[in-house]
Specification:
The chain has about 290 residues and is α+β, with helices and mostly antiparallel strands. It has a single domain, classed as Jelly Rolls. It is about 30% helix and about 25% strand. Helix 6 crosses helix 7. It starts with a strand and ends with a helix.
Length: about 290
């Protein structure tokens, strides 16, 4: 992989953000965006536990889903309070995916400000909390609705690996899915993934690498591939904004209601032929990228 550092700024004007990051679709970390929010000092494990400790949440492990695994199916369930107690005691490779804590504790929405000066189109009904224990992993994917994301880390550190959408075939994208066939687990370790012998086109993939810390806000442009690893137990909030272009909105709608439904039907009706066709297509596309690169 050919990785560059993500630009990091303390503050940025709306004009500079639009010119250098939003329009060219380039990621950036804004360090001070969340520091004026009450959430910056207020949000912690104990506070959340008092608010939603009794709520039952789905937990996800680090095992990559295979061709026959239903998408977004939880691997276990606990109350939020029990989960917090578990990940506080040490490394626990369990994460919570798309927990809408704000439905249960709407007062939390008063603890942050929507950054409307940076971009339009925020989906204000759906701010989302992402929580993980140390060593937990969110495997390489892109967001199905093709939204822009502002992802703010509140507790703990997190490693993030990013690639533009256009790198999809070098990343061995599964057809009709938002996932990569390759495993990027522990990519930042000397003996970590990926397996270049099995996935040689990954050597050509050009992306970004960054570590998020308390208060950092990462702008992930629409369609960006991302893989995240929790270095410490922690949580972050994502604010989503729809693309301003009609074509961008159409892509999101197609992914949600066309692509995903086709994949679901085919997995249920002809799972083995569908999987075999996908796998063949994945490596054919990667081979084309290798030929271009040579």
């Amino acid at each position: 992989m050919r990785l560059s550092e993500v630009d990091i700024v303390d503050t940025i004007s709306p004009a500079d953000f639009k010119e250098h990051y939003y329009l060219p679709k380039r990621p950036v970390v804004i360090r001070d965006l969340a520091k004026s929010w009450p959430a910056y000092e207020k949000w912690n494990w104990d506070y959340f536990k008092t608010l939603v400790g009794d709520k039952r949440v789905g937990l996800y492990n680090n095992i990559k889903s295979d061709a026959y695994t239903p998408i977004n199916t939880a691997d276990d369930y606990k109350t939020f309070g029990d989960y917090i107690d578990m990940i506080r005691t040490g490394p626990a490779a369990w994460r919570i995916f798309l927990f809408n804590i704000f439905e249960h504790a709407p007062q939390l929405t008063k603890d942050f400000t929507w950054p409307d000066t940076l971009m339009n189109g925020f989906v204000k009904r759906y701010p989302m909390l992402f929580v993980g224990g140390a060593t937990s992993i969110t495997h390489m994917h892109f967001d199905i609705d093709m939204s822009h994301i502002l992802h703010t880390q509140f507790v703990g550190r997190k490693k993030v690996l990013l690639f533009p959408f256009e790198e999809q075939f070098k990343l061995y994208r599964k057809p009709f899915e938002v996932l990569s066939l390759a495993d990027f687990s522990h990519y930042h370790h000397q003996n970590g993934s990926p397996d270049y012998d099995q996935f040689p086109a990954l050597k050509l993939a050009q992306g970004f690498d960054v570590t998020l810390e308390h208060g950092d806000t990462l702008f992930m442009p629409a369609g960006y591939w991302h893989h995240m690893e929790y270095l410490d137990s922690g949580f972050a909030m994502s604010l989503r904004a729809m693309q301003s272009s009609v074509s961008g909105k159409i892509k999101g709608v197609w992914n949600l209601f066309g692509m995903r439904n086709i994949d679901t039907v085919m997995k249920k009706t002809v799972p083995h032929p569908w999987y075999n066709w996908k796998r063949k297509k994945i490596f054919e596309q990667a081979e084309k990228e290798l030929r271009k690169g040579s």
